[in-house]
Specification:
7-stranded mixed β-sheet, 2 helices
């Protein structure tokens, strides 16, 4: 069987006289190497109920020795039982930290060796290939750790430089004294020309707006690497102050070029209530209520003695409401405080489908 598989050992002791049950212990040896001392139960059997999975690959010969007890004082030993342990199989897999990277950017290759063995974790080394070309920087493994009961080891090859184009990457695990080697399936990593995003001009990355209601602009430059012809799109700003908007002109840049980022703020101002607004609706409702009250007063039966009292109270209430509503004219108004003063951390992002870069800016409203 393979390394790390369970083996169950059992030794049976019987008296030659056929009477009585031997007790005591049985010692197990692999050739001359000590394995374990096992107690003999009342049926004369010694065993490893939990199994043993630490036998190294190679041939083995197990012999049991009985030491005797107060009734059976003659020592005895069994004939050896032989078997062979083979190296355990492995499966190797690899993942890249990114499927597409910019020219000159590194990629990290993460490798895992899995087994079905319950033995120690694999050791050995890895060799990485791009197609049939060996990559520099092979990794020598230290003993790993077990995961979920099965032997497993992980490692990585950081900061790998690859040529432009599509690269087909594999890794070979060397194996060790307990495990056979294995090769991963190929993964694809594409290296493409990238672009850089920066703030143009001499003012740096700070935009100053003189007062709420004003606006400010900064020039953003796109610089593509050799052979770059992607289209970088700009459409969002994060971290804008209240009551402000941002825009890009143009909204995209192909290859290399520039765009102007403009941030517009809002000054504090009053907003008249329009027909359909809450204030207008409230005013209309109160006017309708007054009309209904007058109508009800006009048709109230004179015979009711309490009618004049109710009329006086209702009229007083209507006059109070009319006075509190501000008198004739408009439907009231509300105000917008405008963009608050202060400094704000603004982030803008340009993306072309493969790559995305962010700029952090400061917007100060004075």
């Amino acid at each position: 069987g393979p390394y790390g598989g369970f083996l169950y050992l059992r030794a049976d002791v019987k008296g030659q006289s056929g009477f009585g049950s031997p007790t005591g212990q049985v010692r197990l040896l692999d050739y001359s190497n000590y394995i374990s001392d096992l107690p003999v139960n009342n049926e004369g059997t010694a065993s490893t109920p939990r199994g043993i999975f630490g036998f190294a690959p190679g041939s083995h010969a197990i012999t049991s020795y009985y030491f005797g007890d107060s009734s059976f004082d003659q020592n005895s030993s069994s004939s050896p039982v032989t078997f062979t342990i083979t190296k355990a199989a492995t499966s190797t897999s690899m993942q890249a930290s990114a499927n597409t990277i910019g020219s000159g950017s590194p990629v990290t290759l993460n490798v895992t060796v899995d087994t079905t063995s319950f033995g120690t974790a694999p050791s050995g080394s890895f060799t990485f290939f791009n197609g049939s070309t060996e990559l520099p920087g092979g990794v020598v493994l230290n003993p790993g750790t077990s995961s979920a009961g099965y032997a497993q080891v992980t490692t990585n090859l950081p900061n790998v430089s690859l040529p432009l184009g599509q690269n087909s990457l594999t890794v070979q695990y060397s194996g060790d004294t307990n495990y056979n080697g294995s090769t991963s399936a190929a993964i694809s990593v594409t290296v493409a020309p990238d672009f850089a995003l920066a703030v143009g001009g001499t003012g740096g990355s700070v935009m100053t707006i003189a007062s709420p209601g004003g606006s400010g602009s900064l020039t953003l430059t796109v610089t593509g690497q050799a052979g770059y012809n992607g289209t970088v799109n700009f459409n969002t700003c994060k971290g804008l102050p209240l009551y402000s908007t941002c825009s890009f002109s143009p909204a995209s840049v192909t290859g290399s070029g520039s765009t102007t980022l403009t941030v517009k703020t809002t000054a504090a101002h009053a907003v008249p209530a329009q027909a359909g607004s809450t204030a207008h609706a409230l005013w209309t409702a109160m006017g309708g209520l007054a009309f209904a009250g007058v109508f009800l007063l006009g048709v109230s039966p004179r015979k009711r003695a309490w009618t004049p009292v109710c009329a006086v109270l209702l009229l007083t209430w209507l006059l109070t409401v009319t006075g509190c509503s501000g008198g004739g004219g408009g439907g009231g108004s509300s105000s917008t405080p405008g963009t608050p003063l202060g400094s704000y951390q603004l982030s803008v992002r340009g993306a072309d489908g493969n790559f995305s870069h962010q700029l952090n800016l400061t917007v100060t409203v004075q």
